[in-house]
């Protein structure tokens, strides 16, 4: 029995005179809801919780800490939730976010929904008010029907009403989060549950250790044959690696599949580094060519959503010119946007293994005119880009600053790069090469701003590696208060703010002259001072050389650092690379 369950409670302790020793011996050992939650999490290998304390979970956090679970306390639940979500992505174990009721729960909910959208396994555990009062809407403290609200925004939502069901509740939440397509799960724990007392032996027996939480799923041989036949028939094959492939942690087999088949590949943003970006078969620098001209495309853990233009349209060349093989754990992903000629439903680790078995002596290889077309395009694009990156000008533009950061990651390939913003995101994704799997963490499927500090904190906590967070000045503002958290836990996080005085650009004006333009911030802001306020290191830089020196110093020291990089306010473009998604008014305003 763990120390947590070995709690001795005498129901009338306070009212009684000292109890003779013999009577204490006879008392049954008791446990309660608090201890059972902690024991259930520990039994299932949960080592870290991200959250914000308050009624009714303050003591739960304290007791978790006392019991050896690491508790990282944040300044806002959304950041704690984002931390939990990315912890799930990095470890394949559900990341846990712990919040108070109604407002804290709602603050965490955006992160839960984002985790579900991105297929990150996460459990949001929120305390809640008394069921009887909530259901009659009698105005309890932080009253809200949280279970009903969470349900449409996550994979599964559960509530535990009886302490003896905590074990099952936690087990269900874990299995729902990590099995099949991973995602967010909500677990509702009403305040009353924590104080419910139970015989300790009965409590311990009620705990459930989840066995094989994400079972292997192997596709049928006929589906594998269909896919291999199609792949072998290709004249211009292409592999697209998505973040599902990064999540699967089948790194060696994925690399083997690419190298043995000789098929060129492009990585989606968070799949960068699965194979190093300077790999000879990377077609990242010839992306538009390969999307347009390929004939058979193998999707490995990547959805044909907006990020791939839904698999159709101009970007994909002539209609009907393409056949898709899709590997995904979620059967309903097949044919979601276009016809999938060869669906391979299973977990990526298992599927890649069976595909590899089929890349044998019968494998025809990849026609050399396809690879040489790609290589020519790549070389042209890479040398065009190199010219932009070498400038050491002041004021800096994005490319100048990114040239310096590209070099940092090249020299420190095990550092984790967190990235959000518009221009800051789109340009960094293209410029900064990644060399190792799961080292690039960004805004993902929704393009959501605000993941920065939560992701950076969890990346440092979960991996112990140095983190470089490259943040647009607007993007940073969504989670910026967590610099205090970074200092408090003394995490090796170096934040670089690309400070161009605003969203996209720092040049907007209010045509009436009354207020600042809607996309601009205080000119010349010094975000570095924020870090200094909490004992971290703040640096202001104006050239790429200064930037490189400051980042190197931060990474060498491991000290929490924020570098305010002054970027030309004129340098960016509206919405970065996705300006075309912006609706434009066609109506001229009447005078
Ligand atoms: P990207 O944004 O990088 O293109 P997406 O998030 O669109 O990636 O797609 C990831 C896909 O990977 C999802 O459809 C998800 O179901 C799938 N997936 C996640 N984990 C696994 C796994 N272990 N095996 C197979 N597919 C997975
Ligand atoms: C939760 C809309 C997309 S990008 C962005 C916003 C506000 C900020 C861009 O400015 P930044 O980058 O970060 O300074 P840069 O380099 O171009 O100047 N709210 C949420 N998510 C999104 N995506 C938005 C708003 C948006
Ligand atoms: Mg900006």
From TrEMBL:
Biased composition range(s): Polar residues: 574-585
Record-linked Gene3D superfamilies = 3.40.50.970, TPP-binding domain (3.40.50.1220)
Q: Which domain of life is it from?
A: Bacteria
Cite the Thiamine pyrophosphate enzyme TPP-binding domain residue spans from the record: 423-564
Cofactor(s) listed: thiamine diphosphate
Q: Keyword check for Lyase, yes or no.
A: yes
- Do you know which InterPro entries this protein is assigned to? DHS-like_NAD/FAD-binding_dom (IPR029035), HACL1-like (IPR045025), Oxalyl-CoA_decarboxylase (IPR017660), THDP-binding (IPR029061), Thiamin_PyroP_enz_cen_dom (IPR012000), Thiamin_PyroP_enz_TPP-bd_dom (IPR012001), TPP_enzyme_TPP-bd (IPR011766)
Domain Thiamine pyrophosphate enzyme N-terminal TPP-binding positions? 33-149
- What EC class is this? lyase
Among its keywords, does the record have Lyase? yes
Instruction: Quote any Pfam family the record assigns.
Output: TPP_enzyme_M
Its Gene Ontology molecular function terms?
ADP binding; identical protein binding; magnesium ion binding; oxalyl-CoA decarboxylase activity; thiamine pyrophosphate binding
Which transformation does this protein catalyse, written as a reaction? oxalyl-CoA + H(+) = formyl-CoA + CO2
Gene Ontology biological process: fatty acid alpha-oxidation; oxalate catabolic process
Q: What is its EC number?
A: 4.1.1.8
Annotated segments matching region Disordered: 567-591
Keywords from UniProt, A to Z, are: Decarboxylase, Lyase, Magnesium, Metal-binding, Nucleotide-binding, Thiamine pyrophosphate
The protein's annotated pathway: Metabolic intermediate degradation; oxalate degradation; CO(2) and formate from oxalate: step 2/2
The Thiamine pyrophosphate enzyme central domain extends over 224-354
Q: Which NCBIfam families match?
A: oxalate_oxc, PRK09259.1
Cited PANTHER family: 2-HYDROXYACYL-COA LYASE (PTHR43710), 2-HYDROXYACYL-COA LYASE 1 (PTHR43710:SF2)
Summary of subunit composition and partner proteins: Homotetramer; dimer of dimers.
Protein family: Belongs to the TPP enzyme family.
Q: What's the protein here called?
A: Oxalyl-CoA decarboxylase
Q: Please give the organism.
A: Methylopila turkensis
Q: Which gene encodes it?
A: oxc
């Amino acid at each position: 029995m763990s120390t947590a369950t070995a709690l001795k409670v005498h129901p009338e302790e306070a009212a009684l005179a000292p109890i003779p020793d013999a009577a204490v011996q006879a008392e049954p050992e008791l446990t309660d809801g608090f201890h059972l939650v902690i024991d259930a999490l520990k039994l299932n290998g949960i080592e870290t919780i991200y959250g914000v304390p308050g009624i009714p979970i303050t003591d739960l956090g304290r007791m978790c800490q006392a019991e050896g679970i690491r508790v990282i306390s944040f300044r806002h639940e959304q950041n704690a939730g984002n931390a939990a979500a990315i912890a799930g992505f990095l470890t394949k174990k559900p990341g846990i976010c712990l919040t108070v009721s109604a407002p804290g729960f709602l603050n965490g909910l955006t992160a839960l929904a984002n985790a579900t959208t991105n297929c990150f396994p996460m459990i949001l555990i929120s305390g809640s008010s008394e069921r009887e009062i909530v259901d009659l809407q009698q105005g309890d403290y932080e009253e809200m029907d949280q279970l009903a609200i969470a349900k449409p925004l996550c994979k599964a939502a559960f509530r535990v009403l009886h302490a003896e069901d905590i074990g099952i509740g936690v087990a269900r939440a874990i299995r729902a989060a990590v099995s099949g397509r991973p995602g967010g799960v909500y677990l509702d724990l009403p305040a009353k549950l924590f104080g419910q007392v139970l015989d300790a032996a009965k409590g311990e027996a009620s705990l459930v250790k989840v066995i094989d939480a994400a079972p292997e799923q192997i596709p049928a041989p006929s589906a594998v044959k269909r896919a291999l036949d199609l792949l072998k028939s290709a004249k211009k094959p292409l592999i697209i690696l998505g973040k599902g492939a990064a999540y699967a942690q089948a790194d060696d087999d994925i690399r083997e599949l690419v190298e043995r088949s000789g098929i060129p590949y492009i990585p989606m943003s968070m799949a960068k580094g699965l194979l190093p970006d300077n790999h000879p078969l990377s077609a990242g620098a010839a992306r538009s060519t390969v999307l347009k001209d390929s004939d058979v495309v193998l999707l490995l853990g990547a959805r044909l959503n907006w990020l791939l233009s839904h698999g159709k349209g101009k970007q994909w060349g002539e209609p009907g010119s393409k056949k898709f093989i899709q590997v995904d754990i979620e059967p309903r992903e097949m044919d979601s946007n276009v016809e999938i000629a060869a669906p391979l439903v299973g977990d990526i680790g298992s599927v890649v293994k069976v595909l590899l078995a089929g890349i044998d002596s019968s494998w025809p290889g990849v026609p050399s005119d396809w690879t040489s077309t790609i290589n020519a395009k790549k070389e042209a694009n890479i040398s065009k880009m190199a010219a932009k990156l070498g400038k050491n000008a002041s004021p800096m533009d994005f490319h100048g600053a990114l040239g310096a950061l590209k070099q940092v990651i090249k020299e420190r390939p095990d550092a984790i790069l967190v990235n959000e913003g518009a221009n800051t995101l789109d340009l960094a994704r293209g410029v900064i090469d990644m060399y190792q799997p799961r080292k690039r963490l960004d805004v993902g499927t929704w393009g959501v701003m605000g993941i920065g500090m939560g992701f950076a904190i969890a990346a440092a906590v979960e991996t112990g590696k140095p983190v470089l967070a490259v943040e647009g000045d607007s993007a940073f503002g969504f989670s910026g208060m967590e610099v205090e958290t970074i200092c408090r836990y003394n995490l090796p996080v170096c934040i670089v703010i690309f400070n161009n005085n605003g969203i996209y650009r720092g040049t907007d004006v209010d045509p009436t002259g009354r207020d600042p333009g809607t996309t601009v911030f205080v000119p010349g802001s010094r975000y570095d001072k924020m870090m200094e306020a909490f004992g971290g290191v703040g640096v202001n830089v104006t050239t790429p050389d200064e930037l490189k020196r400051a980042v190197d110093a931060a990474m060498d020291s491991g000290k929490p650092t924020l570098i305010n990089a002054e970027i030309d306010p004129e340098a960016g473009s509206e919405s970065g690379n996705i300006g075309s998604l912006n609706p434009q008014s066609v109506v001229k305003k009447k005078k």
